[in-house]
Design a protein that fits this description.
The complex is a heterodimer of chains A (about 300) and B (about 270). Chain A has two domains: about 5-20 and about 160-300, Alpha-Beta Plaits, CATH 3.30.70.520; about 20-160, 2-Layer Sandwich (Alpha-Beta Plaits). Chain A is an alpha+beta fold. Chain A contains seven helices and 17 strands. The radius of gyration of chain A is 21 Å and the shape is elongated. Chain A has a 15-stranded mixed beta sheet that branches. In chain A, strands 13-14 form a two-stranded antiparallel ribbon. The model of chain A has no long low-confidence stretch (mean pLDDT about 95). Chain B has about 270 residues and is mostly beta strands. Chain B is built from five helices and 15 strands. In chain B, strand 14 (about 250-255) and strand 15 form a beta hairpin. The longest helix of chain B has 10 residues, at about 225-235. Chain B starts with a strand and ends with a strand. Classes of the chains: A alpha+beta (about 300), B mainly beta (about 270). Chains A and B meet through strand 8 and strand 10 of A and helix 4 of B.
Chain lengths: ~300, ~270
């Protein structure tokens, strides 16, 4: 594969291939940042891949009390899925089990849109007839009595059909420690990009996958071409000096958000350099035929 | 472009129906056409030109210089734009308005904001009885928008309120929020006897201790609720002092148990 070099880091002349998804955003607030984050972390758990989790979810950013609807500390969460029906199901299940249950929480729309998903409108039935609606201006909230007071939840939240899932960077290094350091630097940079999340643990996936498998019923299996222990197998894409590979997967509310996140991540990896970080950066694609969104690394370089 | 100004010549000899002088209805009319509009409510014909001297301007911003308690239905059914009355008005100002902003610099009569659906109605003086309430035979009063009274409100303010927000910076008369269906009423000053009389749903917020709370409300204790901070934030641009009431713990009373008891009164914790 032809390569460019930036600050001593080899950049593959390839592209990340991404897919259209449905997405929504929420603002979760609580009496303290700790409990707002707790509700958000619980809600976004088991939300790494639409293949096995039904949704991909993550924290977009912390919100100061001055920015939230109720003047308490908050967290903005993004949720992605393949269809509107599945997104609605995941939203209802996750907010109902993980946010409604969290001490002192409240939940609001984090995205304005012409199309909406039910939020409080679906959860209100937990109130068993004691729930009350409160309309203020053009917003409608449900107040559901719970054991520590009331769970306040906006009736609806916005839906976008322009979301993109599957932007990615493949970080390759000479040692596990330096590869992880490069991936962590990229995650920290991408964290600052609005409207984008990295759904895998700490933003990093170590088990990148390819489509299909030799076994029936497996729709994805290990990306053997990028497994360093199989370097000599003949199908490997890795150079002799690569000993560890990590992948950063990015979902965004817009294609621009994904491109911005990849640009920020790539810049952080390049800035760290090959001594302390990655030797090489690549991206995952399926030949360009499956996903409509292509992000070429050479276009994203700093 | 400056406002279209109607300056009162003399106190009118009969009650006037000023509903025709709303931005949407004046749009595209010439000064002469506007002057010919009839405002009479008796058999004696009175036109705009008889009552007011006119200064042309932007019909989306209407200004009345001088007012009268005989000015009825000012801004009734207005949909957009701005109307300001520098003086008092009579009955049914802002009746069934759906948008825009109506400002009354003086006092307003009964049924101000009756059945309003949207927009902002501000009364800088005091309001008469049945603020936002329905006329005889109607099932619901105000249905949306924001109604602010800087002075006091008469008896039965918010009668049969269905939706929307009423803020009274002064005191309220007896039977505040009577027969409320839903919606929100905040009173910063003293409320008269029996607030929430027969209210089904909705929220009444009392800034001061009420001497005669209804016996058909159940004390649910003192709470600091997220919902109150949302209301506070919503009304803050209209009345920061009334918004401040909601930022402290308040006693919640549930009622009126004489009907379905799904409404609430918030009053000072002490």
């Amino acid at each position: 594969m032809s390569q460019l070099t930036a600050n001593g880091v080899r950049i593959d002349d390839t592209f990340a291939e991404a897919f259209g998804l449905r997405a929504t955003a929420l603002v979760i607030t609580a009496p303290t940042v700790k409990w707002a984050r707790q509700a958000a972390v619980t809600m976004t758990g088991f939300g790494t891949s639409v293949i096995g989790c039904g949704a991909e979810a993550g924290i977009d950013r912390d919100m100061p009390a001055s920015e939230t609807p109720d003047g308490r500390p908050g967290v903005r969460v993004l949720l992605f899925s393949t269809s509107t029906a599945e997104l609605q199901k995941q939203l209802q299940g996750r907010v109902g089990q993980c946010v409604l249950t969290s001490p002192g929480s409240a939940c609001y729309a984090g995205l304005a849109g012409a199309e909406t998903l039910k939020l409080g409108g679906a959860l209100r039935f937990f109130g068993d007839g004691f729930q009350v609606a409160k309309r203020l201006g053009d917003k409608r909230y449900w107040r559901i009595p719970v054991m520590d007071g009331e769970f306040v939840c906006e009736a609806t939240t916005g839906l976008t059909k322009a979301a993109v899932g599957g932007g990615n960077l493949i970080v390759m290094g000479g040692r596990a420690e330096t590869t992880l350091a490069a991936a962590e630097a990229a995650v920290a940079a991408i964290d600052a990009v609005p409207d984008a999340i990295m759904p895998f643990p700490g933003g990093i996936a170590r088990s990148g996958s390819k489509v299909g498998a030799k076994y029936k019923g497996m729709i994805a299996s290990t990306n053997d071409a990028y497994c360093p222990t199989l370097k000599g197998s003949g199908r490997s894409e890795l150079d002799a000096d690569i000993a560890s590979v990590l992948e950063i997967v990015i979902d965004g509310l817009t294609s621009d958000a994904v491109a911005g996140a990849m640009r920020a991540g790539l810049a952080a990896i390049v800035a760290l350099g090959p001594e302390r970080g990655a030797l090489r950066v690549g991206a995952g694609n399926y030949g360009g035929k499956l996903g409509p969104h292509h992000y070429h690394l050479k276009d994203l370089l700093p | 472009m400056s406002a279209f100004v109607f300056t009162l010549r003399d106190q009118p000899a009969q009650r006037l129906d000023l509903a025709p002088l709303a931005p949407l209805r004046l749009k595209g009319l010439s000064k002469a056409e506007i002057a010919a509009i009839a405002l009479n409510t008796t058999r004696e014909r009175v036109t705009v030109g008889d009552v007011f001297s006119l200064r042309s301007g932007d019909a989306a911003q209407i200004q009345f210089e001088g007012g009268s308690e005989r000015f009825d239905r000012v801004g009734a059914e207005m949909t957009d734009g701005d109307i300001t009355v520098n003086g008092p008005v009579g009955t049914q100002a802002g009746r069934r308005m759906t948008g825009g902003r109506l400002t009354i610099a003086g006092d307003a009569g009964p049924w101000t904001g009756s059945g309003m659906h949207g927009g902002v109605l501000e009364i800088k003086g005091s309001a008469g009885e049945r603020l936002g309430g329905p006329l005889s035979g109607e099932t619901a009063g105000m249905r949306g928008g924001v109604l602010i009274v800087r002075g006091d409100a008469g008896p039965r303010a918010g009668d049969r309120l269905r939706r929307g927000t009423i803020v009274i910076d002064g005191a309220a008369g007896p039977y505040l929020g009577s027969r409320m269906i839903a919606g929100t009423v905040i009173v910063r000053g003293q409320a008269g006897a029996l607030p929430g009389y027969l209210m089904a749903r909705g929220t009444l917020v009392l800034g001061e201790r009420c001497e005669a709370l209804p016996p058909t409300f159940a004390d649910c204790g003192v709470h600091e609720l997220v919902a109150n901070s949302l209301i506070s934030k919503f009304i803050n641009p209209f009345s920061p002092d009334s918004a401040a009431i909601l930022r402290r713990p308040m006693r919640r009373l549930l009622g009126d148990m004489a009907v379905i008891g799904r409404g609430e009164i918030f009053c000072p914790a002490g």
